[in-house]
Write a structure and sequence with these properties.
One of its GO terms (biological process) is riboflavin biosynthetic process. The chain has 4 helices and 12 strands; from the N terminus they run E-E-E-E-H-E-H-E-E-H-E-H-E-E-E-E. The protein is of the alpha/beta class and about 190 residues long. An 8-stranded mixed sheet has the order 7-6-5-8-1-9-12-11, with helices on both faces. It is globular, with a radius of gyration of 16 Å.
Length: about 190
């Protein structure tokens, strides 16, 4: 099986959105460079960010999100973000009425089921878990192999936490990657087992 990676952009004080679910400047680094990150023409980053992010994005076969993120994005219109093949949604509610069965979205009722389904779908490719409550639950369940953070130089003071409501201590290894991009610091930690 491929590795399971918790990922997201985060403020220096540990938030992925403010109290109103707004990311503020957390994604500004994705449009502040001169190297196209994808074919959209919208995302352009520094060369250092591109060299780190593009190979990682190419590894991802499935992304796991919670129902809250799915609803906030309106399910990305049925098209997984960033070229990902599948999205697995953790929810206790049924999929939305009229949701297309042909869309590569899979609805499950636990984080354990989400990781198992994602790994079944993508085999040796990477399973990405969105930071926040679901990511924190997957970490607490001992199913995260690696934590990747795009640390943005902003302080929110309060909001939605990167690790959600994790209450127990979890040790990470020393960072094995630290890359300085424009308006972002990319950091990667392996989870200590």
């Amino acid at each position: 099986m491929g590795k399971v990676v918790m990922y997201g952009s985060v403020s220096v004080d540990g938030f992925i959105a403010d109290e109103d679910d707004e990311p503020g400047p957390l994604f500004d680094w994705l449009t502040s460079g001169d190297v196209a990150l994808d074919e959209s023409g919208v995302l352009a980053v520094s060369q250092a960010s591109y060299d780190y992010i593009r190979p990682y994005w190419n590894e991802i076969g499935a992304t796991i999100v919670g129902r809250h993120v799915f609803d906030l994005t309106d399910g990305w219109g049925g098209v997984p973000p960033s070229g990902v093949d599948h999205v697995v949604v953790v929810t206790h509610r049924p999929e939305p009425d009229g949701w297309g069965a042909e869309a590569p979205f899979h609805f499950v009722d636990s984080v354990e089921a989400a990781v198992a389904r994602a790994q079944e779908l993508v085999g040796d490719r990477t399973v990405e878990v969105a930071a926040g409550d679901v990511g924190g639950q997957v970490l607490a369940a001992g199913l995260i192999d690696e934590v990747r953070m795009d640390v943005v130089p902003v302080v929110f003071g309060s909001g939605k936490r990167y690790f959600g409501a994790v209450e127990a201590q979890h040790l990470l290894e020393d960072p094995d990657v630290v890359i300085h991009g424009d308006r972002v610091l990319h950091v990667r930690y392996r989870v200590r087992r």
